[in-house]
Write a structure and sequence with these properties.
By secondary structure, the chain is of the alpha/beta class. The chain folds into two domains: about 1-160 and about 345-365, 3-Layer(aba) Sandwich (Rossmann fold), CATH 3.40.50; about 165-340, 3-Layer(aba) Sandwich (Rossmann fold), CATH 3.40.50.2000. The protein contains 15 helices and 13 strands. The strands form two sheets. Strands 3-2-1-4-5-6-7 form a seven-stranded parallel beta sheet, sandwiched between helices. Strands 10-9-8-11-12-13 form a six-stranded parallel beta sheet, with helices on both faces. β4, α4 (about 90-100) and β5 form a beta-alpha-beta unit. The two termini are about 25 Å apart.
Length: about 375
């Protein structure tokens, strides 16, 4: 098969790294793989793809210039002549529906339960062009069927994987803390809820020693300034460490230094960072965001949820984590079990199964009776 992957951009990110894992493994299976991004082709994920010998094409330098970008995307499709196109993330999904010829099967990955009405409406209006949707959790699949009005038979759930060997550390490390060394991984954006967490940290009792590390690019400068103002007003600015965008190769070290991961997201799909933390033996506190319930169904002890997703509830949860090392040890063990069962090889095998079914469906439709 010749497969063309299309994604919005190729800087560090959960969806971008998932595409890398899938595309590189599909290529290793002997298939011809090309990747197109709308912008950011020189990002870290783009460089890793090139390092695997996978051609990376770019339609523009920024997200502006829509018509020209569609023409360039169409020209890449014409040049590559793929058997199918697999698009990732909203802007790439939408662009492919406009630019990919109708005879080429189009698959679209859904990664989050998108709350923005404009995105929902555009997805809904163009959904008939898509041959198959791939959701990364049951929550996302239900969202697609209810909000985007996608037929159940056109939506396949394929769960995220994790490279356990990359993140795994000595699991015998003591669950006894001298202080909380917290970590939050994700772009600095209102979706990720860092404002909720910072207010919660400001409410911790003074007898609990702590520091907190944030890894992720700033996608909203206004929101980033707001976070700094909250921290400074609360007098905790010196305890917060902002690492910015951390290279993928350095991220495991941050996990190894942490003894608590927090995910206060307002919405998600099923966050890769939770699996990475579990693989690294880091206890997890998470909002009851999309995809989390499925992790709990796999192992009810793998993480602890914070509900409602308010600063007051987060403060209480962190105090309880500090006071109960036996619960932390139990969570570390359960998280390691769950992560061990999430192989990217399984994820890729399921993708290839969907690809073959899509091509068989195209062949059946082309047969004249």
């Amino acid at each position: 098969m010749t497969i063309l992957y299309v994604i919005t951009e190729l800087h560090e990110g959960g969806a971008e790294n998932a595409l890398f894992e899938v595309a590189s493994r599909v290529a290793a299976e002997g298939h011809s793989v090309h990747v197109v991004c709308l912008y950011g082709g020189q990002g870290a994920v783009g460089e890793r793809l090139r390092g695997q010998g996978i051609p990376v094409h770019q339609t523009g330098r920024t997200l502006a210039g829509g018509l020209l970008r569609l023409l360039r995307l169409r020209s890449v499709v014409t040049a590559v002549q793929p058997d199918l196109v697999h698009a990732w993330l909203f802007h790439a999904n939408f662009a492919c529906r406009l630019a990919v010829p109708g005879h080429v099967p189009l698959l679209c990955s859904l990664r989050v339960c998108e709350p923005r009405k404009s995105h929902i409406l555009l997805d809904r209006w163009t959904r008939r062009r898509v041959n198959m949707y791939i959701a990364n959790s049951e929550d996302v699949a239900r969202f697609a069927q209810k909000q985007l009005r996608i037929a159940a038979e056109k939506c396949r759930v394929i769960l995220n994987g994790v490279n356990v060997s990359v993140f795994q550390r000595d699991q015998t490390r003591s669950a006894i803390y001298e202080k909380i060394c917290g970590l939050t991984v994700g772009r600095v954006d209102p979706q990720k809820g860092q404002d909720i967490l910072i207010r919660a940290l400001a409410g911790l009792p003074p007898d609990i020693p702590w520091e907190w590390h944030f890894a992720g690019s700033v996608t909203s400068e206004k929101f980033g300034r707001r976070l700094q103002e909250i921290a400074n007003r609360s007098g905790i600015g010196e305890k917060l460490h902002w690492h910015g965008q951390v290279p993928r190769s350095e991220l495991p070290e941050l996990y190894k230094q942490a003894n608590l991961l927090a995910l206060p997201s307002r919405w998600e799909g099923q966050p890769n960072v939770l699996l990475e933390a579990m693989a690294a033996g880091v206890p997890v506190l998470s909002s009851m965001t999309d995809g989390v319930q499925e992790l709990l169904q796999e192992d009810e002890d793998c993480l602890r949820t914070v509900s409602p997703n308010t600063s007051e509830a987060w403060t209480r949860a962190m105090v309880e984590v500090w006071e109960h090392p036996e619960e932390r040890a139990k969570q570390i063990e359960a998280g390691a079990r769950l992560a061990a069962n999430r192989s990217w090889d399984v994820t890729v095998a399921e993708h290839l199964e969907v690809y073959r079914a899509s091509l068989e469906g195209r062949c059946r439709k082309s047969v004249k009776v």
